[in-house]
Design a protein that fits this description.
Blueprint lengths: L1 E5 L2 E5 L13 H10 L7 H17 L5 H7 L4 H7 L4 H8 L10
Length: about 100
């Protein structure tokens, strides 16, 4: 486990670089994580995915897979890849302050 500096705070991260503590997350942290992932601005569609992932994770204990995102979030696969290039579920989970979804490489 390591740490990253976000908004002047040292935050613990897991082996994948995702936040280790859900309580460290807020929307400002999400914006900074998105910038680090090459996403300069979070749009309403980004927030739809981020909030959906956090809701599922809170209820079920883990972030949803890409398949579930496309079926239940209201955002299709092509759009997910445009919003979160190179691994939408993994990158969205990171920005949402969640561990990498089960099954993501």
């Amino acid at each position: 486990m390591g740490t990253i500096n976000i908004l002047g705070k040292q935050l613990a991260v897991d082996a994948d670089g995702n936040l280790a503590n859900r309580s460290d997350w807020n929307e400002d942290v999400a914006r900074e994580l998105a910038k680090q992932e090459g996403i300069p601005n979070l749009t309403s569609q980004h927030w739809t995915i981020i909030n959906y992932m956090r809701k599922v994770s809170e209820k079920e204990g883990s972030a949803p897979s890409i398949r579930r995102l496309t079926k239940e979030s209201g955002v299709d696969t092509k759009t997910l890849y445009q919003l979160f290039p190179k691994g939408p579920a993994k990158r969205a989970a990171k920005i949402a302050g969640l561990p990498k979804p089960v099954g993501c490489i």
